[in-house]
């Protein structure tokens, strides 16, 4: 294929733009903040679960404490009522019955108040555990929120840069013959790079020195002849820096 030196030089500009686009796409897939979010996601789930478990344990203990407190109140009320009746009892049988019931109520009250004390201590301990787990969760969630904000900002910046590169590429394509562009795209699709500069006797497509025979062929070729890197197959563009 034949193409003017000017059009071949534009291929280098196009290849440079495509390289920038490739790096941009790689960056978009490997945004540091996104990678950090993925790393802490498992820990976020664990901390949420731990906080939820701690809250569930606390609520269960609080419910038990309320039940025992209610039972204690009921027993105290019955005890006071029986003590009032005892004072008004007229027969030994009534006195004995009330005293027996009051003694049983006192034993039950002592047992319930002991259980109440244990539950109060348990609630206090579980409250401290929940507060710690909740603080741990909130700390990590705050870190995740900051990472999300910075990731989204990075994405916005990358999208703006990608838009600029896309516009520049379309403008550049307008100045290159369609046949040459088609060749460039075909080569790029096959080898990953469409065109590269020949610097001295080194192909920038492979970063390797061309063999003597290959360099002789380059020097013999007409200026408008489209050449290819013998190592990669990319279009090889001669410039002022080429050893020709």
Task: Give an account of the 3D structure.
- With 244 residues, the protein is α+β, with helices and mostly antiparallel strands.
- It is built from five helices and five strands, in the order ααααβββαββ.
- The chain has a five-stranded mixed sheet with strand order 3-2-1-5-4.
- The radius of gyration is 42 Å and the shape is rod-shaped.
- The mean pLDDT is 95.
- Keywords: Coiled coil.
- It comes from Gulosibacter sediminis.
Give a quick precis of the structure.
The chain has 244 residues and is of the alpha+beta class. It is 77% helix and 8% strand. Strand 1 and strand 2 form a beta hairpin.
Structural class: alpha+beta
- Form type: rod-shaped
Strand residue content: 5-15%
Major beta sheet, strand line-up: 3-2-1-5-4
pLDDT averaged residue by residue = 95
Poorly predicted spans? none
The number of distinct structural domains comes to 2
CATH C-level class of the largest domain: Mainly Alpha
- DSSP helical segment count: 5
Q: How many E strands? A: 5
Q: Give me the CATH architecture of the largest domain, please.
A: Orthogonal Bundle
Pattern of helices and strands: HHHHEEEHEE
Distance between the termini: 20 Å
Coiled coil: 51-157
Organism: Gulosibacter sediminis
Domain CT398-like coiled coil hairpin: 14-190
Protein name: CT398-like coiled coil hairpin domain-containing protein
